[in-house]
Amino acid sequence: MTRYAFIGLGNMGLPMVKNLLGADHQVQVFDLDAGSVEAASRLGATGSKTLSEAVMGTDAVITMLPAGPHVRSVYQQLFELVDDKTLLLDCSTVDIDTSLWCHEESRKLGLRFVDAPVSGGISGAEQATLAFMIGGQAEHVEQARTYVEPMAGKTFAAGGPTTGTAAKIANNLMVHINLLANSEGSQLAARLGLDPKVFHDIVSASSGRSWAQQVWYPVPNILETSASNRNFDAVFRADLSYKDLGLALDAAEQHSLHMPATELVHTQMADLRAEGYGHKDCTLIAKYVDPDGNLEGYTPEPA
Fold this sequence. Notes:
Radius of gyration: 20 Å
Mean pLDDT: 96
Structural class: alpha/beta
Strand order of the largest sheet: 3-2-1-4-5-6
CATH topology of the largest domain: Rossmann fold
Strand content: 5-15%
Number of helices: 12
Largest sheet: 6 strands, parallel
Number of domains: 2
């Protein structure tokens, strides 16, 4: 039995904790949201009131936090609370500089750290089919692969420090560009008189197929996992998409790359945020295909 600390719960963290518990491991949890800690406790985790309480005596600490500043803040505390017996795994989606800082500070203190972001969304977290992209020293990466196995469908040794983070940034760029394709293709097909289910089946067997099309398609009553069935309540929030795409554009600027498709979908996420819909699902960008903003499955929220 492995003793885990899980820091940062939310939509992804809770099902990940559930899978660790289902594999007969011990999990201590901490989150600033007391309701999330209570929910994890109902699953069988041990709720902690402080970060130090959560990490006490653990073999592995998993962090799943919203952005780079949160990661830096938490790790500044973790570095004073753990020793080299504990492996630190950051599963957050952050900028390269934050990931590199975590690696370098860990090395200076003689601690073990890997960047280990995940892909697969809430459904992947629930079904224990997440893809883990792990970067760090080779021996630490192999240890991390063992620790994440109860939550994973696949694990990848991405390479040295920050390569897991780099893979996640590039992957998220690609899935969001696929969102644009789904937005425009689904709406054009509807205007051309195609049955939505028949068209989705055609794309599923054709070259337009993608993960986003198979899981996040922005048309209701086709996929159970689509936010379009629930008025685009968030499966993956638009403000998180905006953040992730910003990470890609920042990296592109540092390396003098031109990425117009990424810029376009980033702008649409910015528009959702400006309209007050940052809390809604990222696939709501499909409403921008119609100049009037009409979209099947979407009813605007009252002002």
